Structure formats: C-alpha cells, structure tokens
Amino acid sequence: MPDLKDTYLFSQLDDAQLDRVRSFSQPVNLDDGAALFEAGDEARRFFMVIDGQIKLSRLSLNGNEKVIEVVSAGHTFAEALMFLDRPNYPVRAVALGSTRLLAIDNRAFLALLRESVDTCFRVMGDMGQRLRRLIKEIDDLTLQSASGRVAGYLCGKAHRQQTRVEFDLETPKGVLASRLSVKPETFSRILNNFTTQGLVRVKGGHIEVLDLAGLRAKAESAGICGQSVGPPSVNEKPSP
After folding, report:
1. Does domain 141-221 fall into CATH 1.10.10.10?
2. CB of 79 closer than 8 Å to CB of 45
3. Which CATH entry fits the domain spanning 4-115: 3.40.50.1980, 2.60.120.10, 3.60.15.10, 3.10.129.10?
4. What are the tens digits of pLDDT across the range 112-126?
5. Using CA atoms, how far apart are residues 225 and 240, in angstroms rounded to an integer?
6. Mean pLDDT of all residues in the chain?
7. Which phi and psi (to 5°) does residue 67 adopt?
C-alpha cells in the first residue's frame, strides 16, 4: 500500500510536513461504480489513490463517455485545480472496483506550499510532465492507427515489468478501449490479431508478451512505443 512519502508529489516533504498533510486529509472509501465527484462540482480537495483505481471521464454531446485517464494506486489527481480562484472539477470521477483514497484539503496544502519551495517545484514538475503526456497523447490519438495505439499501450506496460513480460490488465477492457479511443470490439479484434501474429497470449485480463521485439516494432511503426496513453508507474519521475 503506497504511503505519502512514496508518492512523487509528497516525496520531498519532511516528517513534520507529512504529519501536517495527514492532519488535513480524510480517507474516502468507494464501492465499484460509485462517483467521487461530478463534472462541475466545486473542487475543494485533491486526491491520492491508496488502493484501486479512479476513472476520470467526460460525456460527449451525444452521451458517449470518453475516458480521460485511469488513476492507479500511488498517484494523485486534481491537484492543479487548487491554483484556480474558483475551481470546479472538469471531469467525472468514478471508482473502478473497491477503491480507497485520501482526500487532501486544497487550502491547507496551499499554505504548506508557501513554506516549501521544493514542493512547489515538485507540483510544477508534475503538472509539466502531465502536460507533455497530454500533448503526446493528442498526437497518438489523432495521428496513429488503432493497432498502433494498442501496441503502444502494451509496449509501455511491458517496459514497466521487472522480470517476466506478462501482466494483468487492471482496468476493464471497455474502459481501456475508451482510453485508447477505440471501440471495445475493435480493441478485442486487435488483441486477437496480435495473438494470431504470435505477439501476445491473452487469457481473460492476463497478457503474456511472446514477442516483445515484434510488439515494439509494431508500436514504433506508429511512432508511439512507450507512449503516454495510461498512467505512469508509481516510481516513474517526471523527466526534465
């Protein structure tokens, strides 16, 4: 279970500052499918995922859901809103599975930031890295093929493995499909094609990469291997 100290945003705080953050934070427990907040709600808090996942999404004019991000354990979200005069959440946040979070008061954390230059730079670095990922994602989603986007996602997941190149899809396939801007049936068809080509073996939500070089080549041919569609690992730091 991730601790505040293990999370990038709080990693430069000393013990006394971490205790202060805990003092103005509250635990939040959500069942699968429960909404944390709706788009347009007043943003008085930002959040850290302790266990589970949070889906951030928006609805299009025709009622279709577009998944903006899936936030996993050890990551924070909505912290950039604390710098706005009258912040409102721009997306809907819903739990994927049983999820535990820490809700952190914006005003209290801003007061702490005024005392910690290092933490201010951490926040700016985090926001800058997210902006770079979003710009990269715009390129991926508008310029690359659906197969390339799925290959890039799998390639990025495989790069984070320390031993065997296999992993479980922690996020439901339908949510991943929306995240990658493909239809669920298209996502399944692409995985089947990759299986036929000997690139991967799929069993339910478990993926075993059989030919990492081939998968990487397919992703690189679309220009997106190691792409940004999906959350970084807990230990991943923003690049300079």
Report:
1. yes
2. no
3. 2.60.120.10
4. 988 878 878 877 887
5. 20
6. 84
7. -80, 120
